[in-house]
Amino acid sequence: MASTSPMRQLTAAIKPFRRKECCRLVQTAHPPQRGVRQLSSTACQLQEGVINTAERPRWSYTPEAMKAPVRHRPGQDPRFSWKVNEDPILLDRMYNKLLGKGGEKMLTEEVKWLAVTHKSFDQGRRGYNDRLAFMGRRVVTLHASFAIINSNVARQQQNEANIPADDELHDRTPFQHPALEGIDELTEKTLFQALDRKRLAGLARRCGLVEVMRWLPRRPDNLKRSGIQTVASEALYAIVGAIALQKGGDAAAKVTRDRILNPLGVV
């Protein structure tokens, strides 16, 4: 293979470098600026927004980023307007009445409002108590089951029945233990009757929980059809769930037995 001639090598060495067209367009669109320092006020504006937001508690306002710039619905009918509680004193009074002396100090300020806030209030933009209610329902159901099994009423009803069981008819001896004497009374029906939402709503009304709940009824002229019993029972469960998460299972169990099951007559 013949080597490249010296003249061709010299011509290639002195040939001017051609810039690519894309590089030329980029430099034209963004010309370099020397000696000019670019300043940005984004960080300052963000810090100011954090400072202004921190001045108000989270439960007392709707986040600005979650508000629509233009209202797409006409003004609300005054007949369907609903006003909720915004007074922390009334809220603390309810917690003291429900949980006993010092009950307002069991939860933080933000969680106290979150536990009584339904997802219908402010379109759920300030948070709502669905997850706390799920946790609290599990705690209350567990201790209600223990109470039904260990109740003297269940044992008395079982002894007064005097109905021969299948094991007795077939001359079989079932396993017996004192802890299992009331297990037959733990059914879905008895548990539903013990934790009926009507009874829980009555307890919530007696302790003042209904007056401080934050929710938006579908029909303010008919709260029962709007589901006030369900909302009140869910708020009661949410308070137990919040105590279980912040104070532990022992504190939640004590509140459930002394402040919910005992007034309902389950314990």
The count of strands amounts to 0
State the secondary-structure class: mainly alpha
Using only C-alpha atoms, the radius of gyration works out to 34 Å
Mean pLDDT: 78
- How many helix segments? 14
Helix % is 40-55%
Detail the poorly predicted runs.
42-51
Proportion of beta-strand residues: under 5%
Choose one word for the global shape. extended
| End-to-end distance | 104 Å
Blueprint of the fold:
Layout: H1 6-14, H2 21-29, H3 42-54, H4 88-99, H5 109-115, H6 130-150, H7 152-161, H8 166-169, H9 188-194, H10 197-206, H11 209-212, H12 223-226, H13 228-247, H14 249-264
Helix pairs in contact: 6-13, 6-14, 10-13, 13-14
Quick summary:
The protein has 267 residues and is an all-alpha fold.
Describe this protein's structure.
The protein has 267 residues and is mainly alpha-helical. It contains 14 helices and no strands. The protein has helices at 6-14, 21-29, 42-54, 88-99, 109-115, 130-150, 152-161, 166-169, 188-194, 197-206, 209-212, 223-226, 228-247, 249-264. 22% of the residues are buried. Residues 42-51 have low confidence and may be disordered.
